[in-house]
Amino acid sequence: MAKENNESAYREKAKDIQADLDSTAVATIGSPEDAPADFDKAIVASGFGRFNLILLIVAVSATCAAMFESNTMSYILPIAECDLHLTLTDKGVLNACAYAGMIISAIPWGYLSDTKGRRKILVYGNFLTCICVLGSALSQNFIMLVTFKFLGGLMVNGSAAVLYTYLTEMHGPKYRCQVLMVVGMITSASTLLLPMLAWGIFSRPWDYVLFGGLDIHSWQIFLLVCAFPSLISGLVMYAMPESPKFLMSQGRNKEALEMLQRIYHINTGKPKDTYPIKSLVLEVPSRDAHEDEVIYTIEKSGDNTEPVKRQSRTLLESLRAGMLQMKPMFHKPLLGLALHCYTMQFCIFLGVNTIRLWLPQLFASMAEYEAQYADEGGSATMCTILEYSVNKTTETLTNHENVCAGPKIVSMDMYINNIIVAFCGLVGFSFAGAIVKLIGAKRLITYGLLVSGFLGIGLYWSINSLTTVAISSAFGTVSGVAIASVMSAVIALFPTQLRSLVVAIAMMFGRLGALSGNILFPVFIQIGCVPPFVMVASVMLLAALLSIFIPNPKKAAFT
């Protein structure tokens, strides 16, 4: 048995070496002119260098733009409650409204990306997001801010979703997994950047009146700064090429070859005409499917490399084709498995994003309470803090002139606590891959969600800010690793041609969960101390229970 395993390992290693040699050969000597190259060979031949570094810069700014759009409200709530006369329900709505926009725009952006191109969506999506963030920065009341945050959610969803596709299509097979891991790290790092920005801006007594009636406060300057990532992304993407893979799928091989030559020139510094690939295979969707086959096949047309005009389809025809592709999702065994995964995603996002987006408010209330009652010990249970937060919000509304007479000052502890929680999440994500290999994805999902459920209810017994930081950090770290494992399991459990669809729908259910949790949390806070934490713990434990019954991703029947 050991010998057979060794031989198998050697065979796999030999295959990897041969693949690397093949890739190197393509990149150095290229394909013969009379042998059209497929996309993978062509993108490998374009090299890896300066262009990919520029892509990384785009990924940093675009990822920050997406994360800022869905997370900034949680940091301005303690600061802006006097300026906007916010109730607890208003705070929940502000946290949730961006997710509402993301849910509504998911399918339209996907359709536009597949028909109009990746680059165009990234350019327009980022510029429109920037405009919406600028609108929210100039907001003078609650309604205006909610409107722009909802529109921001509508706009940012396009660039955020297309970014992953664009990045993978701009890299060869060797680098695709690494690129996605880097994007994951950037996502975690962006959550660390937000409290640092808030710390640097909210501590300044910035209050201005422009044009005789436009009030500008520090929280609005914070939102203004958060518009820069989307602006930078839009400007850089304007100078970037369209995805060659998309162009090839549209039968626009001449343009695709020009883009590949441009990438090659940037990466190597050599003239474009020295690019080793001289022609590309023509990817022609076949409209004639076999019996019971709903996915269009891709035919390589051999020596015929001349672009052929594709048969145009109306919107109704495109929607009908999309419904045919989705048909297997409504039959066994995929229907039950899909609903299972969607329910898990809803529960996980409800629990995780509710705690994550309300932590800044909880930390602010805790720091304010401990400072106010320092002579009496300055320490309080979570229930005391929630009661204090409810009473303080009510007092702000009923006695606004006295409570809000001076500038709103938030203790430095609030920012430090949020930075600690975000940093722990970043560290956890860094080790996620090693943990998955150690205990397996399925066990990690179940154990991670189970521990997260107990940590969620554990916040109820928090006795001071130190305890809250410790439990919150553990909750965010463990649940973050579990979320990454769930998404990898979802990808492995479904056929290749349905994976993008399943992931898109799963993310839509997740955002619906985040929206629901942020609306329900302030309602439960006003009912009592126990209900909000019981809600979080219940959904996480339910997700853990459901995870027991999903198939092991390693033994997935689909490829």
Relative strand content: under 5%
User: Helix/strand/pairing class, anyone?
Assistant: mainly alpha
Average pLDDT confidence is 78
User: In total, how many beta strands?
Assistant: 4
Biggest β-sheet description: 2 strands, antiparallel
What's the multimeric state?
single chain
Number of contiguous helices: 21
Uncertain residue ranges: 1-33, 284-310
Strand order of the biggest β-sheet: 1-2
The helix-strand sequence is: HHHHHHHEEHHHHEEHHHHHHHHHH
What Rg do the Cα atoms give?
Answer: 26 Å
Can you characterise this structure?
The chain is mainly alpha-helical. It contains 21 helices and four strands. The protein has helices at residues 2-28, 39-45, 50-84, 88-116, 118-137, 142-169, 173-202, 218-225, 228-238, 244-249, 253-268, 315-326, 334-372, 382-398, 400-403, 412-430, 432-439, 441-458, 465-493, 496-527, 530-548; strands at residues 207-210, 214-217, 283-285, 298-300. The model is unreliable at 1-33 and 284-310 (pLDDT under 50).
